[in-house]
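Thread: Newbie trying to understand structure tokens

Hi all, I'm a second-year student working on a class project, and my supervisor (Dr. K.) asked me to get a predicted structure for one chain before our next meeting. I've only ever worked with sequences, so writing a 3D structure as a token string is new to me. If someone could post the tokens and maybe explain what I'm looking at, I'd be very grateful. Here's the chain:
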Amino acid sequence: MEALSPTSRIRQIYPADLFPNGDYANLPYGRVRYWTLGPEEGTKVVLIHGISTPSITWREVAPYLAKHGFRVLVYDLYGKGYSQAPYTTYDATLYTVQLALLLQYIHWDAAHIVGFSMGGGVAAAFTASVPHLVTGKVIFISSAGLIESVRVPIPEYKELRNLQTSELAGYGRSLRSCFQDGPIRGLEAAFDRVAQVAVGPARQKPQVLIIHGTDDDIVAYEEANKIKGRVPQAEVVTVEGAGHDVVMRDGHWQIVAENLARFLQ
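---
Reply by user tm_fold:
Sure, no problem. This is what the structure looks like when written as tokens:
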């Protein structure tokens, strides 16, 4: 997206300066767009978006956390938004390596991890694979990772997704690979390991929060119960009447943000 004109429709919807302190990290698989919000001394938190909509997903939640004293890292996954789309398989390993190298690049020793939709699968794989980079808390919001069938994306930002398909050469390729190979299913072993792995300076089991809307027709509410079954220590927050756009829709994102701030204290 950075190669497109700032006046293009896609960059009007999703401007590069949507969040403050934006920059690029030149990593082995390609350039990664990221932003850091909030006080530098704040508790470090990473927000991971989903399969089709990039970091604009967090346009409400990220500033809320920053205003409440957290140091927040937001970034575009490979193949989405402003990050490059390498010619590779878009699986859990790619996205785990991307985040691990990004944390190293910005000199973060570890952070709490928050994943939405496919980002929840990334969060599970990341925690299971590199637990020393997890401070102690993991949050799964409307999380994929164990789903058996894939449904249509959420209606919010449909125009942005369509523009990514038409104007970003690698987006369609990355999306197809994510649906076929990505961390949206088959992560039973990763979630099992999340329940047991030692994280943080104290080397203890992670504290886990699951947030899910009752009316989610993309990642059904039952997925929250499946994750809870594999991570027994998890707290579950049910957002009544919320769909898959729970982190974006007014009246619902506030519930998500308030619970994030409470849990991450």
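A couple of things are worth pointing out once you decode it. The beta strands are 22-27, 30-37, 44-48, 71-75, 111-116, 134-141, 207-213, 235-239. The chain has a mean pLDDT of 94. Feel free to ask follow-ups in this thread.
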